[in-house]
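Re: that chain you flagged

S.,

Sorry for the slow reply, it's been a week of failed gels. I finally had a moment to sit down with the sequence you sent. For the record, here it is as I used it:
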Amino acid sequence: MVSQLTDAYARRFYYLRLSVTDVCNFRCTYCLPDGYRPNGVANKSFLTLDEIRRVTRAFAALGTEKVRLTGGEPSLRRDFTDIIRTVAANEAIRQIAVTTNGYRMARDVREWREAGLTNINVSVDSLDARQFHAITGEDKFNQVMAGIDAAFDAGFEKVKVNTVLMRDVNHHQLDTFLAWIKPRPIQLRFIELMETGDGGTLFRKHHISGTTVRDELFKRGWIRQLSGRSDGPAQVFTHPDYAGQIGLIMPYEKDFCASCNRLRVSSIGNLHLCLFGDGGIALRDLLASDDALDELEARIAGALAYKKQTHFLHDGNTGITQNLSYIGG
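Prediction finished late last night. Pasting the structure tokens below so you have them in one place:
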């Protein structure tokens, strides 16, 4: 299907990141160091199953092929498996992914797969249990590792692991990570630390460019792979001696936004054209009934006229994003 979601720069959008909650039970230093705090929306409620069905149906009708369920921590929703099943019922959606902190995977990942989940990303910022605890505020390293094992046992052929790259925290641990993925089909994705409204001090202290990892990979014979149209923003590298892969997400690199193919909907039903944009376009008033589908599609498609060519992170402008849990990172 050709995407009907095309912006003024001829970018086509096949990928929706749908936040189902902004609540998280971890306290990661780069996101929610003081724990979850409501974002000031009085009496807010997160999207219901029917609203999720309608918004994903509209995006699918406009050419969306992949939906990623995000948070906060999406598995905190008691109806999370039902959410997966609801999205999977739409045959136009070819991939249903989740980004999770992994704390419930050992218990629930098989159920998620049976409901229709096709891809899984787990956040693991250190392979040292003590450092993991220090970064996340939770002593759950072994639990998360067991969850990754459970994902493979449940039939996932590959698991993606997200690692926020931080100077003097984990940037020097490449050999440890490579040894971990050598026998395992894990795509380890180093994500450059991004500045947020709440995280400027930490950013200035710990940001390091992903080019440092990329240069080292090239020295060691790793080869960059081509990306598919509904893939995420990672540059993916493979090596014949490794079962796993390395991905690099580098939002500060020149032309990072040129290949943008994803849109975001927040847990309260706002369309966000960029993670670091200035605001959102309300969709929720059109999610109350199946009768508004045409108008919903028109509003989504029309919003693309306002998508900017690039983010403004290089200027220190983080837009509306106070922390990465706000609209799903």
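What I noticed first: The chain has a mean pLDDT of 91.

Talk soon,
D.
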